[in-house]
Amino acid sequence: MKYPLHTIIRKKLSSLLNHFLALFSKKSSYATTLKREDIKSIVIIRPNYRIGNIIFLTPLINELNIHLPHAKIDIIVGMKLAGEILEPMPNVNKVIDIPRKLLMQPINMFHYVKQTRVKKYDIAINMSGGSTSAQIVTAFVKAKYKASFSDKKLWTHFTHIQERGLKHYKHMGLESLEFLRFFNIDFPKKQPSLDIKLTEKEKKEAQQALNQLLKKNNIPANKKIIAIFRNARFDKKIPDTWWNEWANTLYKENENCIIIDILSPDIPTKLNDNVLEYSNKNLRVLGAFFQACNLYVSADTGPMHLAVASNAKILALFNKTDIEVYGALGEGNTTINIEGVSPVVVAKTTTEFI
Question: Domain 12-18+32-183: which CATH class?
Answer without folding.
Answer: alpha beta
